[in-house]
């Protein structure tokens, strides 16, 4: 009895057991027609009693490629199957790879259902979560995607594109957004920055923790006839300077809870107290002091709230940002020079004028000790500890009203800016992260560069007496390219009887500019008879279900 051909994949079976949700076995079905016998049984006969050629012709009617019938690839000369074929035959008889098993339709169809893995189910669910807004009827009508598997493939491609876009957004967030969240952008200046702006084209001043651009302001007319100010005077004594001394605030206005009308009826109590502070800036002596009763002809200066009512509203439109101080410098002022610079919740206070007056001989009856004694105690530590007293300040047990009164008094009189944290780890985290990524990339490039270098003597090939296999994959190359490749292999130093040329043609394809398929070109180059058409050979690839069956020549 003649050998029976191997079973073939049937295109008519597409759609059997398929499902739009991607869990079906649409592409995992293949036909094993009992009409052509068991594909693993070399002794089986056809159900219709046909010979091998008839089986082959009938098989072509089912859509199989036109080729010569071949024998069972798993049978030996006596027709006995090896162990793998026996297992495969038993597997086909028992049915399935899990799940519901094999399903028989009629007398000629044999469908194998493959088990859907958990990973596949999760991916399909995730795909539908990303593409649920595109209905299947829309894809069928507008997208001309009639088959469920094509629609599912489209959804998976869209899901992959969405993942790519999300990864881009995540990277942009790490590079740009994360830095702004960890360290929001602030317009801040140091005193060194301010001191560098002292020209007619750019003039800045620092005033009570803020920076103002007075370039246009100093060109305007301000002040009365007795104390009028000119651009030259402001450029000489104000531009690039700290002008706190020019705008003193009466202590009675700044600390109303601690200074009464009886104590200071004329609003003449200011810090720094004259005769108590010794390290005042000499340049401040040339600045006009906008103090109470300094100019009897000025109605504005007769108002104790001159700074809040007139100065700040005028300067507000010229504000550029805030003043910042490096904490190391503040701490050195406190520890090394015993200056009363303190930090509370990142706010910097210059308490030197206060303690100069409090510890001077002018402080009779402790009239200059305005603040709470407990607050003075944690500030006056003679250089012990650190300049930052936030923990000690928060640990003080006092009522909210007293705490607020002391804080407002310090803020109105002695506040000079904020701590500069632009160089902190929090603000430089994204820079460090990008630097780490750059170092990794440079390391990869360096390793690949070193790996490409050839140290020592040039490597010699394997001795010509060894057996070698020269594998050449080709796809759509033309005659000249293939001839050059084959000639280069034949010119190798290896002996011809020890050298095997293994040329693989991937598909029966006619390349651009060619007049015949690539396999035929290779056969012509090797001198094979043009009339010879080698038979197709069945083999099982490493795959699942119907994808395992392949044909090669």
UniProtKB/TrEMBL annotation:
GO cellular component: a single term: plasma membrane
GO biological process, one term: chitin biosynthetic process
Pfam families in the cross-refs: Chitin_synth_2 (PF03142), Cyt-b5 (PF00173)
Entry keywords, A to Z: Cell membrane, Glycoprotein, Membrane, Transferase, Transmembrane, Transmembrane helix
Spans annotated as Disordered: 1-73
Listed Polar residues bias regions: 7-36, 52-71
Membrane topology listed for this record: Multi-pass membrane protein
Molecular function terms, GO-annotated: chitin synthase activity
Domain Cytochrome b5 heme-binding: 190-248
Residue ranges the record marks as coiled coil: none
Entries under InterPro entries matching the protein: Chitin_synth (IPR004835), Cyt_B5-like_heme/steroid-bd (IPR001199), Cyt_B5-like_heme/steroid_sf (IPR036400)
Transmembrane stretches, start-end: 123-142, 158-182, 432-451
Name recorded for this polypeptide: Cytochrome b5 heme-binding domain-containing protein
